[in-house]
Amino acid sequence: MKSIAAAGLLAGSALVLTACGDLGLDFGPRSQAVEKYDVTDAVSTLRIQSGSGDVVVTESARTGIAVTETLHYRGDKPADGHEVGNGTLTLAYTCEDCSIDYDVQVPKGLNVKVDTGSGEITLRALSGPVDVSTGSGEVDASDLLAKTFVAESGSGSVEARFGAAPDSVTIESGSGDGIAWVPGGAYHATLHTGSGEQTLEVTNDPASPKKIVIQTGSGDSKVLKL
């Protein structure tokens, strides 16, 4: 049992590390810092790559991109993790024991891509293409005007509300509900679930160019009418 506990510590389990204080072990205090900055470069794509942390992306009638990063870390503060190249703003950090929460304000029509190992993803009023995934955490998207939407969670529900009829929606969840709220009309809808309810409140027309695919391993699969 001791060897198993030691392996857990070496693997960096947050749960085990939290208990280390009770065992008399000291891995140093955990620090927090908040970084805020604007990006005024010509950018068409936002890409966020995070090992751990929550992500919020909100679209508004603004120019440029405003980023707020909340860093949680031990030891040295992670170095600046953003760069712009080929029209893409990339937000990413490389650190062994840290998590980064992102709150990003973007202008209209930006292509948004998010990939996080663990953390919730919140999307608000996005009108550009969306492609997001999280290994563990919920995806909550609202007031969407995006024509193309792809969202995946290994463990957590994925819910998306559209203010206008999308052209293509793909939602996958290994463990959790997959739900899309869309305006009424005809869609080519495909629903799959290993264990859960299937609900379709719009007209299913295989000839429709508007496609919705929702697949869940364990959880409800639903297309609901707004």
Automatic annotation (TrEMBL):
A matching Pfam family: DUF4097
Domain DUF4097, chain residue ranges per copy: 43-221
Alphabetical keyword list: Signal
Extent of the signal sequence: 1-18
Gene3D superfamilies to which the protein is assigned, alphabetical: 2.160.20.120
InterPro entries (UniProt xref): Toastrack_DUF4097 (IPR025164)
Keyword Manganese on entry: no
PROSITE patterns: PROKAR_LIPOPROTEIN (PS51257)
Protein name as it appears in the record: DUF4097 family beta strand repeat protein
Natural source organism: Herbidospora solisilvae
Lineage: Bacteria, Bacillati, Actinomycetota, Actinomycetes, Streptosporangiales
